[in-house]
């Protein structure tokens, strides 16, 4: 007689005989696979097996990956301890959860229901620190897991506005939905006294700067400007000062430059002949082939390989037009470096335009007679003389 024809009482007796200290998971699993009746009847034995034999990691991993919050409930009811295995934690100073911790797997898979189920278990929340949840938030942002981010925000298990505001990372990767979630979270925290206006402002200002480097920054910038981001925010790292308008010019984002100028960005904010949006616009970057003809840092030893004069790219031409329309002054918006870079990169159309607007090249290392010769070379538009008088590293290595 087949097993499927046995009475439930006899089936349970068979399972009880297998459900011993020496039994293995393989002994019960085949019975559960006969049909759905056997599965529902014998599944509690599997849960107890996992709890008794300390193999809860694989079971909880499976449930977290497959978005099975009900299975997690059964495992916990059967006695699985969410923190009984040292294997779930790394041995770093902060003892962060390993990548295969169930709640980390759930967050990485954007399984909000599983995260909610795990967070409802007191032994889990008592075993994890804010640093753990901060890491989960970071990776959820990296992977664009908006549901996971919302769960962590709603539970208030971590503060995303201290230290390095997570909104800057979200903006840097163009995560519009997550940025929106974080802005709403900030408003709620301010109302309840959990966040200061100062920290919120710092976060959205940094996000504005970071969001410019995305492929299509318009939506991110519009959202952040509407939230009150400072369009003239200056980020300082030692001698390096970065501003949103300069970054938009650097990445050749014409739409972003226009949006920032319309929002009140000051093209003369840096008040410097070298630093400014004019210089940033004429500076190549790793994703731009307008001026670079060899990998960055590569020296052209063969003169025959020197490029011919290059036309001004449409994006740089339009950025220059916008900057000058909004009264950019070469003496205050990086015109000196911009002119020198245009000469070095042999983009002579840009060089002529800058000279027409009054740009001068004024390196600090030259004496009065050399500066006079340089001024004359600029007036004569003698670009070869300019190259001879000022080494290319003066502006291009900055």
List keywords for this structure.
398 residues; mainly alpha; 2 strands; elongated
Task: Describe this protein's structure.
It is a single chain. With 398 residues, this protein is mainly alpha-helical. It has 23 helices and two strands. It has a two-stranded antiparallel ribbon. The N and C termini lie far apart (85 Å).
Please outline the major beta sheet: 2 strands, antiparallel
Number-wise, the strands total 2
Oligomer: single chain
In the sheet with the most strands, the strands line up as 1-2
Poorly predicted segments: 90-96, 286-305
If helices are DSSP runs of H or I spanning 4 or more residues, what is the number of helices? 23
Order of helices and strands: HHHHHHHHHHHHHHEEHHHHHHHHH
- How would you describe the shape? elongated
Average pLDDT score: 80
Gist of the model:
The chain is mainly α and 398 residues long. The chain has helices at residues 8-18, 25-32, 36-52, 56-65, 69-77, 102-108, 112-119, 122-127, 130-142, 146-155, 166-172, 176-191, 197-211, 218-226, 244-250, 254-262, 277-281, 314-325, 335-344, 348-356, 368-380, 383-389, 393-396; strands spanning 235-237, 240-242.
Q: How would you summarize the topology of this molecule?
A:
Elements: H1 8-18, H2 25-32, H3 36-52, H4 56-65, H5 69-77, H6 102-108, H7 112-119, H8 122-127, H9 130-142, H10 146-155, H11 166-172, H12 176-191, H13 197-211, H14 218-226, E1 235-237, E2 240-242, H15 244-250, H16 254-262, H17 277-281, H18 314-325, H19 335-344, H20 348-356, H21 368-380, H22 383-389, H23 393-396
Antiparallel strand pairs: 1-2
Helix pairs in contact: 2-3, 4-5, 4-6, 6-7, 9-10, 10-12, 11-12, 11-13, 13-14, 15-16, 16-18, 19-20, 21-22
InterPro entries: Ankyrin_rpt, Ankyrin_rpt-contain_sf
ANK repeats: 240-272
Keywords: ANK repeat, Repeat
């Amino acid at each position: 007689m087949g097993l499927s024809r046995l009475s439930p009482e006899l089936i349970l007796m068979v399972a009880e005989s297998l459900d011993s200290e020496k039994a293995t998971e393989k002994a019960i699993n085949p019975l559960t696979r006969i049909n759905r009746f056997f599965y529902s009847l014998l599944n509690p034995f599997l849960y107890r097996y996992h709890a008794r034999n300390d193999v809860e990691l694989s079971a909880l991993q499976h449930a977290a990956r497959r978005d099975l919050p009900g299975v997690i409930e059964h495992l916990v009811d059967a006695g699985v301890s969410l923190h009984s295995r040292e294997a779930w934690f790394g041995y770093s100073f902060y003892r962060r959860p390993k990548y295969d911790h169930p709640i980390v797997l759930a967050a990485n898979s954007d399984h909000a229901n599983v995260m909610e189920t795990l967070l409802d278990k007191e032994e889990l929340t008592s075993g994890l620190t804010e640093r753990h949840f901060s890491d989960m938030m970071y990776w959820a942002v990296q992977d664009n897991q908006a549901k996971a981010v919302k769960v962590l925000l709603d539970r208030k298990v971590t503060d995303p506005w201290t230290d390095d505001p997570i909104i800057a990372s979200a903006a840097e990767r163009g995560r519009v939905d997550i940025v929106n979630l974080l802005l709403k979270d900030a408003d709620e925290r301010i109302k309840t006294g959990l966040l200061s206006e100062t920290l919120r402002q710092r976060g959205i200002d940094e996000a504005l700067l970071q969001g410019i480097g995305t492929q299509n920054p318009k939506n991110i910038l519009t959202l952040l400007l509407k939230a009150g981001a400072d369009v003239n925010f200056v980020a300082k790292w030692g001698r390096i000062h970065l501003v949103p308008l300069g970054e938009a010019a650097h990445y050749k984002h014409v739409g972003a430059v226009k949006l920032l100028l319309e929002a009140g960005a000051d093209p003369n904010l840096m008040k410097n002949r070298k630093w400014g949006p004019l210089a940033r616009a004429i500076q190549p970057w790793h994703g731009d082939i307008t001026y670079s003809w060899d990998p960055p840092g590569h020296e052209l030893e063969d003169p025959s390989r020197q490029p011919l004069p290059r036309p001004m790219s449409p994006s740089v031409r339009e950025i220059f037009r916008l900057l000058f329309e909004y009264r950019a002054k070469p003496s205050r918006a990086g015109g000196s470096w911009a002119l020198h870079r245009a000469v070095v990169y042999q983009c002579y159309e840009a060089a002529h335009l800058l000279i027409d607007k009054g740009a001068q090249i004024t390196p600090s290392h030259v004496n009065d007679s050399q500066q006079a010769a340089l001024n004359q070379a600029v007036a004569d538009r003698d670009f070869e003389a300019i190259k001879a008088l000022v080494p290319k590293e003066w502006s291009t290595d900055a």
